[in-house]
Amino acid sequence: MTQTIAPRFRTLVLLLLAAACALLAGAGPASAHAALTGSDPQQGAVVDRAPAQVSLTFSESVSVDDDALRVLDPKGKRVDAGSPSGIGGTTYSVKLHAGLPDGTYTVTYQVVSADSHPVAGAYTFSVGAPSDTTVSASPQAAGGGFVGGLYGVGRYVSYAGFAVLVGGAAFVLACWPRGSGVRVVQRVVVSGWLALTAATLLLLLLRGSYTGSGKLGDVFDLNLLGEVLQTKTGAALVSRLLLLAAAALFVAVLFGAYDKREDEEKRDLTFGLAVGGTVVAAGLAATWAMSEHASVGLQAGLAMPADVVHMIAVATWLGGLTALLAALYRGPADAPVPAEAVHRFSRLAFGSVIALVVTGTYQSWRQLGSWSAFTDTRYGQLLLVKIALVAVLVGIAYLSRRWTAQLAQAATAGVVRQREKHEKGDKGEKRDKGEKAPVGASAARKNGKAAASGTAAKGSKSAEGGKTSGTSAKAGGAKAGGAKGAGSAKKSGASNGAGTSQRAAQLARQRAAVDAARQKRQRDADPNRFGLRRSVLAEAGVAVVLLAVTTVLTQTEPGRTEEEAKATGASSSATAPEASTGAVTLDMPFDTGSQNGRGVVRVELDPARTGANDLHLYVERPDGTAFDIPEVKVALTQKAKDIGPLPVAPDHITTGHWSASAVQIPIGGDWEVAVTVRTSDIDQVTVSKNAQIG
């Protein structure tokens, strides 16, 4: 039976690792987690005079360096001056050289979002009139290439190492304290620590190139590494390394002093190790929570603790499962995992699943924001895959609980049978004691006869004493002659004795190996334990794929951000003016915070020139369907000339459509169009965008 299990085990592990690698390879570059929501000049705009600066507005704060924003002329030469800087909120700008000639200019940007992922893109605007350009305006691939692939593998290994380290230690402390002395369990936990440490160092080295040039040669650039250490992600990685030093001390105590204690002494040390281990595990989990998705967006103060609980629950379940699987398959035959330890882990895993469901539901609502995002965004689709895998894992875990219950019942029945056997043995001994007296009397009679015959024999031996002494005298010479061979006989006997002891030791080792093999066969022949091993192996297989999906999910743009980007024109909040009519169309997403308070308001201004203009306003839900709201107001402001706000009261035409005619715009320039949307008696919000008019 065991000869067929091992090849199947290795084959299944290889297949699951291949599936995980395929998922990671298909992940591609990390998606932008901050979207470009506005720009000045706008994408595709044609302005009369060259602007003094270019400004970009993102959906969340980003990190910029000296080359984060670049502006290129039609020949590909840089025309920006100085370093980019923030000008308020989430808007960043870079100044341009004076006296730029007419033509089409390309704006490229590569920044790092607040949740640590690189964001890149490009667009064009024209001065005077559009022209040919040698610069490609296609978005740059941020976080891709060979360095991006290595970075994704490093993230996967770090998650896996954290799970094995935390879950394996929790399995020993909470479920199987005697497992601290089992070599295979020790190797599992130490392997988790080594994997997490190596992956953290790799991520720290790759970080600069991953968010920048993407070149492998920049991995060992010390100047770039110094810049990484000054970022939030760099600080998180360094903090993780410091916490791993504390984790190494914890592991040394767990498999050193703790293992050498007796059971009573272990209970006193268990509480201290549990508290210290929980603190270290929470700190390690916080290095992810404080630098990724949970640290930005809605309710970050609540999302980060929830993310820490989520990660510890995942690690306790999947890491403990790994330790249990290793103990079931590779544990010593003379110290198998007891049924009580498996039962304890079953309860621990059940609590972890409850924590996963609660925190996962909250995080899903926070990152998606709507039911449609489950199917309309890549993040939602991956989340559905993750939910399905968790459901499969829970189903297999239910089967494991059944095998655990049957194993516990079999162990209880074995204890009862052993107790009954001892009781029968005690009764047999009592019966034997009652029958010893008559047996002793017959033995005494036999001893008397033997004594009489012995006395008679002495007489005959004394009569033959003379003959015996003569024979002894003759033998004396022979003894003297054989004295020389005594030394060689002793040496030969000593060598024979040494060979006999070596042979005895070899036979003892062989007998021990045979006994261990017999015990292993007896252990594996148990149908309940065999069924448990298969179900735990299936759980571990699904867990490998689940961890890969989770890694890809953390590199994917959240559904809420993706929907907002779609509502604002994928990468910009404003579309280009139409060449044929000169009309301007502005799309502005809004959220009043109430039920049915989210949507997109679209303003069309035609012909977008000085004098009279027609204004059309449309209100749509995130899915594109028109709907009515109680009130909508428009105001036009030109801050450069201190004109406005000029109020506009559009008339309701039909569902989701308002219109105003003869809207007077006195002078041309950059105008702010502000729209106030009211969805209930108390819920309203004002959104605004700029438009070039005249």
In a nutshell, what does this entry contain?
With 694 residues, this protein is of the alpha+beta class.
What's the structural blueprint in terms of helices and strands?
Elements: H1 2-25, E1 36-40, E2 46-47, E3 53-58, E4 62-63, E5 69-72, E6 80-88, E7 91-96, E8 103-113, E9 118-127, H2 145-174, H3 183-211, H4 222-229, H5 232-255, H6 257-260, H7 263-289, H8 300-330, H9 339-368, H10 373-376, H11 378-434, H12 436-463, H13 465-481, H14 485-524, H15 527-554, H16 559-567, E10 584-591, E11 598-606, E12 611-620, E13 631-638, E14 643-648, E15 651-654, E16 657-665, E17 669-678, E18 684-693
Parallel strand pairs: 2-9
Antiparallel strand pairs: 1-3, 3-7, 4-8, 5-8, 6-7, 8-9, 10-11, 11-12, 12-16, 13-14, 13-17, 15-16, 17-18
Helix pairs in contact: 1-15, 2-3, 2-7, 2-8, 2-15, 3-4, 3-5, 3-8, 5-7, 7-8, 8-9, 8-15, 9-11, 11-15
Strand elements, count: 18
Question: What is Rg?
Answer: 41 Å
Largest sheet: 5 strands, mixed
Range of strand content: 15-25%
- Structural class, by secondary structure, is alpha+beta
Low-confidence stretches: 1-6, 12-32, 436-491, 570-581
Number of structurally distinct domains: 4
Average pLDDT: 77
Shape: elongated
Number of helices: 16
* Range of helix content: 55-70%
> N-to-C terminal Cα separation, in Å?
84 Å
What does it look like?
This protein has 694 residues and is an alpha+beta fold. It contains 16 helices and 18 strands. The protein has helices at residues 2-25, 145-174, 183-211, 222-229, 232-255, 257-260, 263-289, 300-330, 339-368, 373-376, 378-434, 436-463, 465-481, 485-524, 527-554, 559-567, and strands at residues 36-40, 46-47, 53-58, 62-63, 69-72, 80-88, 91-96, 103-113, 118-127, 584-591, 598-606, 611-620, 631-638, 643-648, 651-654, 657-665, 669-678, 684-693. The strands form four sheets. Strands 2, 4, 5, 8 and 9 form a five-stranded mixed β-sheet that branches. It has a five-stranded antiparallel β-sheet with strand order 10-11-12-16-15, with no helix packed on it. Helix 2 packs across helix 15, helix 3 (183-211) packs across helix 8 and helix 11 (378-434) runs antiparallel to helix 15. It is a multi-pass membrane protein.
